[in-house]
Amino acid sequence: MVAVTFYGGVNEIGGNKILLEDKDTKILLDFGKGFSKRSKYYEEFLRPRSANGLMDFLRMGLIPNIKGIYRSDLLQMAGMKAEEPDIDAAIISHAHADHVGYCSFLHEDIPLYMGHTSHLILQALEERSNRDMEDEILNFKRRPFQRNDQPIHRNIKTFRTGDKLKIGSLEVEPVHVDHSIPGAYGLIVHTSDGAVVYTGDIRLHGSKPEMTRDFVEKAKEVKPIALIIEGTRIKELNDGASESRVKQSCSNIIRNTDKLVIADFSFKDVDRFRTFYTIAKENNRRLVIPLKEAFLLKWLSKDKILQVPTLDDNNIVVHIPKQKSGTYSEQDYGTKEREFLNLPNAWRADKIKDEQGKVICAFNFFSIDELLDIDPEPNSIYIHSASEPYNEEMEIDSQRLQSWIERFNLNLFQSHCSGHAFGDDLFDVVRQINARTVFPVHTEYPASYHIVANDLVIVEEGKRYDLGKMK
Ligand SMILES: [Zn+2]
Ligand SMILES: [Zn+2]
Predict the structure, then answer these.
(1) Exposure pattern of 101-112 as b/e (b: 16+ CB <10 Å)?
(2) Interval between CA 12 and ligand 1 midpoint (Å)
(3) What's phi and psi for 288, nearest 5 deg?
(4) Among positive and negative, which fits the CA dihedral 102, 108, 112, 116?
């Protein structure tokens, strides 16, 4: 018997947690953090208590109560019994937190399969951040822990398009797709009742639509019994937004100014990074990246396919922020950050201030207080170039951003193209793949798929759907 149960991503954007069972084999497709569920109860300064292990997460419905999937230490801290793992693998579609975040809680004997690039991204994120219970994907420390305790490394298996992963009675075929983070995959799972196709997050208006088309083509060939498809932007129609349009419009603004330019975008969106890097180069400016993003550049430039510039590139500058003592002394920085402090292209605010017409600062809202030291000339430019709902990026208070803009007499512009396919593109995907049954996830409007789906299931969270019994 083949069955699928959705424990997250139901009537919400992100937080996908899908259990697929075939006879004795059980796998998870993604195990993400549900930002909308979490922010219903919690915010930056009110967080699920780590001293309770998994208890707060379970009681507030942030994670499902499933036997045999969680870490023993976190169950025990919650006053529950440790369990033997009862899942064969978790397959991660891509490295956004709403798909991978809560793998932090999974039992260490459950192997995590992910794309090669997702692994690089997670290594970079791990290196730059402090240990946090909700962010221990590649390794974790058993709770409660002492400073010198060694982390426990999970069993990570990486894949690329063309690989076939044999897991019990299942065979999983990952196929690349285009999304706002590199290394995203759609998954084709061959079960004993037929193929189940899972899109992960996809788009067709990005810089590599052919990758999504490859996936759709492969999915169509296997005549799937079920299609699990995202629908983040199902209500919007394609109005011609594209990465090249973002480049064109931002280029036009930057070409016409000799003042400071700040570009606010997500670094994991490597297409956007490349867009601003190219604009900087074409306009004889350097792209200034925040110290904490240097980790991403360091790791992603290892993958030549991504064509990400290396840290010693002539057009890249690493910004060293003032910390602790305010004297830029080495002790003010984390041990891992220290490797960047003495790079020849490491600049402090005073140097950026002197060169402000010759740079694009890739700063997001959380670096905006650097303006106090950079002291931009009036009428400098702030380009806001990121706006995904419930992404791993914290939602910013646009009123507060506006106040900073006014305080420093900046000009604010908005230019973006989404990581998610538009309604008309999604309908085309459904029509082409032509699966027997369609299960929308990662959307607030699943019923919109009625227009194109033969048999549409409006998913109920936690309900088990027997795919063999569906018509
Ligand atoms: Zn997502
Ligand atoms: Zn995503």
Answers:
(1) bbbbbbbbebbb
(2) 10
(3) -90, 120
(4) positive
Measure the CA–CA gap between 158 and 436, rounded to whole angstroms.
30
Ligand 1 centroid from CA 348, angstroms = 35
CATH fold of 243-414: Rossmann fold (3.40.50)
Closest CA to 274 of 299, 301, 295: 301
Alpha-carbon distance of 200 to 158, in angstroms, equals: 17
If you measure from the C-alpha of residue 444 to the centroid of ligand 2, how many angstroms do you get, rounded to a whole number? Answer: 15
C-alpha R_g of the chain: 23
Ligand nearest to the CA of 390: 1
CA 179 from centroid of its chain's CA atoms = 10
Q: Which two tokens stand for residue 46?
A: 């009110």
Residue ranges for the chain with pLDDT beneath 70: 387-397, 471
pTM: 0.96
In whole angstroms, what separates CA 297 from the centre of its chain?
16
Going by C-alpha positions, the residue among 260, 287, 267, 186 that lies closest to residue 227 is 186
Q: 84 CA distance to ligand 2 centroid (A)?
A: 31
The yes-or-no answer to whether 2-236+420-469 and 243-414 have a common fold is no
**What backbone torsions phi and psi does residue 334 show, to the nearest 5 degrees?**
-60, 155
The CA-atom distances, in angstroms, between 200 and each of 186, 222, 436 are 5, 18, 19
Residues 83 and 69: their CA atoms lie apart, in Å, by 8
Q: Order of strands, edge to edge, in the sheet holding 359-361?
A: 346-347, 316-319, 286-290, 359-361, 261-264, 381-384, 411-414
Closest among 453, 465, 470 to 234, alpha carbons compared: 453
Distance from first CA to last CA of the chain, Å, rounded? 14
How far away, in angstroms, is 97 Cα from ligand 1 center? 8
Q: How far is CA 340 from CA 132, 297, 311, 335, 389, in A?
A: 23, 12, 9, 10, 32
- Cis peptide bond N-terminal to 144, omega within 30: yes
Which option is the CATH number for 2-236+420-469: 3.60.15.10, 3.40.50.1820, 3.60.130.10, 3.90.1170.50? 3.60.15.10
**Residues making up the chain, counted from first to last:** 471
Give the start-to-end residue ranges of the domains of the chain. 2-236+420-469, 243-414
Q: What is the pLDDT of residues 10-57, one digit of tens each?
A: 999 999 999 999 999 999 999 999 999 999 999 889 999 999 999 999
Residues 220-244: pLDDT tens digits?
999 999 999 999 999 999 888 899 9
C-alpha distances in Å from residue 368, one per residue of 182, 238, 249, 264, 392? 27, 32, 23, 10, 19
